[in-house]
Amino acid sequence: MRTAPRRKQPRGSEADPQVEESMAAVARVESSGWSQIDDELSGSGSAVLKGILSPQQCAELARMFGNDRTFRSHIVMAKHGFGRGEYKYFSYPLPDLVQGLRAVLYEKLACIANRWNEAMGGAVRYPAKHRDFLRRCHEAGQERPTPLLLQYGEGDYNCLHQDLYGEHVFPIQAAVLLSEPGRDFTGGEFVLMEQRPRMQSRAEVVPLRQGDAVAFAVHHRPVRGSRGFYRVNLRHGVSRVRSGQRHTLGIIFHDAK
Fold first, then answer.
1. CB 204 within 8 Å of CB 194
2. pTM for the whole structure
């Protein structure tokens, strides 16, 4: 049985700046208005967590894109028909900041995910701790980490899609915008597309600033109708970048085969 490796912390009296930065981001996530986030996720399929990363943290993460040793794979989107741009999947062990965000976001979202599955008649329930959910993934052969960095330049875009990597899927994921709209890039809006049964598709653009995160449904979410709950299908993408360069941190909670 494999679990996600942990980074060893140095001994000594001096605090590790990377650990301190991770702890600060975790604290910002924990202090977000989770009652409102719950309402927005359940009402529209997405919710914004404002300013969970500082500009310095955003810049440090974006600079990691040039360090291939941090990643397990590099995808050029045009080669696969995914759009234009590129992204890289982190390797284990994850950077402290990414690991900290992944763990705390999962813990905050697990109760919402369980309520969604119950409403949709699903039997799967998610444990309170992310490490226990990862153990479930790894036992099923889903052992490759899925957090990723995405980079878009002028003319790049991401086609509407769903991030499904195997049998075990956590129904909510998150993306953190690392660049500042209007300064670093123009265009490049985060887009959600929702398809309800026997209805026209509904598109929604989610406005973000640097350091903001958006939590959103991976593929399905429950909607209350006149006869109880029914499920709707969601996909997400990024509109065409008009100028500049856009970086994003993607946080997916299930691992991949």
1. yes
2. 0.91
Residue 10 Cα distances to 13, 98, 159, 171, 223, angstroms: 9, 18, 42, 35, 48
| Cα 178 from Cα 190, distance rounded (Å) | 13
Lowest mean pLDDT among 27-36, 59-68, 103-112, 193-202: 193-202
CB atoms within 10 A of CB 5: 12
Query: What proportions of the chain, in percent to the nearest 5, are helix, strand and coil?
Result: 30, 30, 40
Distance CA 119, CA 222 (A): 6
149-173 pLDDT tens trace: 999 999 999 999 999 999 999 999 9
Residue with tokens 């909510």: 172
3-state SS assignment for residue 111: helix
**Orientation of helix 96-119 relative to helix 34-44, angle to 10°:** 60
Name the region of 50 (left: φ>0; alpha: ψ -120 to 50; beta: rest): beta
Domain annotation for the chain: domains and CATH numbers: 17-251 (2.60.120.620)
DSSP code of 66?
G
